[in-house]
TrEMBL record:
<dbReference type="InterPro" id="IPR003439">
    <property type="entry name" value="ABC_transporter-like_ATP-bd"/>
</dbReference>
<dbReference type="InterPro" id="IPR017871">
    <property type="entry name" value="ABC_transporter-like_CS"/>
</dbReference>
<keyword id="KW-0067">ATP-binding</keyword>
<protein>
    <submittedName>
        <fullName>Metal ABC transporter ATP-binding protein</fullName>
    </submittedName>
</protein>
<dbReference type="InterPro" id="IPR003593">
    <property type="entry name" value="AAA+_ATPase"/>
</dbReference>
<dbReference type="GO" id="GO:0005524">
    <property type="term" value="F:ATP binding"/>
</dbReference>
<dbReference type="Pfam" id="PF00005">
    <property type="entry name" value="ABC_tran"/>
</dbReference>
<keyword id="KW-0547">Nucleotide-binding</keyword>
<dbReference type="InterPro" id="IPR050153">
    <property type="entry name" value="Metal_Ion_Import_ABC"/>
</dbReference>
<keyword id="KW-0813">Transport</keyword>
<feature type="domain" description="ABC transporter">
    <location>
        <begin position="5"/>
        <end position="237"/>
    </location>
</feature>
<comment type="similarity">
    <text>Belongs to the ABC transporter superfamily.</text>
</comment>
<dbReference type="InterPro" id="IPR027417">
    <property type="entry name" value="P-loop_NTPase"/>
</dbReference>
Length: 250
């Protein structure tokens, strides 16, 4: 079976300066990988490298069996909602239809199959009733679900999500988690970055701990341990007197 994602000793960064090194990943179809690390650890840069938007400076990388630059557009991407302009004067349906453009070609009208894929994607995220609403009038959590629907409409075999639960209410978080579980059961490989160790533990098959370099990768039970989190978070891991540990963001 072809790996959805394979990185061997990869460094990624900007202007030839690495921001994240020693990345070794092997993600199979249907597996869920959580990228965990503090602010500025390089999680977004790693995601961008998979999308062909940040350069691979060293090592070997393959995305859906191809070089990341060649695989550009084949992996799905759900950006952080706060990077989008909420005043964008488009309907929810139009945002989700954007996920079909690569299949349709921007110059051709949408076909029945495209409209069906959009309706199904909105239904999966529980927003079928909002199709005609203006995107900017939705809550942050609902906007995040629309962006997930847009990615689903493209039917990717690999889907990357950058902090999908940031600023998201509990109802939307539950809806997103349920959809991600279904997608992976259908064979879609998932990569998501998160600050939330609880989410990583609950949702991920594999956790990759990063901060400037990869510190560990493996199942949650082997990676989300006090020792490995201390290594990854350095001085930002504070030992509490009762034996527990608290992570403090820089
Ligand atoms: N376009 C860019 N050009 C140069 N440096 C960048 C660029 N984007 C990010 N960086 C730097 O790369 C480092 C890693 O940033 P990145 O956004 O990948 O971290 P992150 O783990 O996603 O953090 P956060 O959780 O805050 O989003 C930071 O030092 C950041 O300043």
């Amino acid at each position: 079976m072809q790996a959805a994602l394979r990185y061997v000793a990869v460094s990624v960064g900007y202007d030839r300066t690495p921001v994240l090194t020693d990345v070794d990943l092997d993600l199979r179809p249907g597996q869920r990988l959580a990228l965990v690390g503090p602010n500025g650890a390089g999680k977004s840069t790693l995601i961008k490298s998979v999308l062909g938007l940040a350069p691979i400076l060293a090592g070997r990388a393959s995305v859906l069996g191809a070089d990341p630059a060649a695989a550009r557009g084949r992996a799905g991407y759900v950006p952080q909602t706060d990077t989008l302009d909420a005043d964008f004067p488009v309907s929810v349906r139009q945002v989700v239809m954007m996920g079909r453009y690569r299949r349709i070609g921007w110059w051709r009208p949408a076909r029945a199959a495209d409209r069906r894929a959009v309706a199904e994607a909105l239904d999966r995220v529980g927003l079928a009733g909002r199709a005609g609403h203006r995107f900017g009038t939705l809550s942050g959590g609902q906007r995040q679900r629309v962006l997930l629907a847009r990615a689903i409409a493209a039917e990717p075999r690999l889907l990357l999500l950058d902090e999908p639960f940031n600023g998201v209410d509990a109802v939307s978080q539950e809806a997103i988690v349920a959809v991600l579980r279904q997608l992976s059961a259908e064979g879609t490989a998932l990569v998501l970055s998160t600050h939330d160790l609880g989410v990583a533990r609950e949702l991920a098959d594999l956790v990759c701990l990063v901060n400037g370099r990869q510190w560990a990768v493996g199942p949650p039970g082997e990676t989300l341990t006090a020792d490995k989190l201390r290594l990854t978070y350095g001085g930002h891991a504070v030992d509490l007197p009762d034996g527990r540990m608290m992570l403090v963001e820089p």
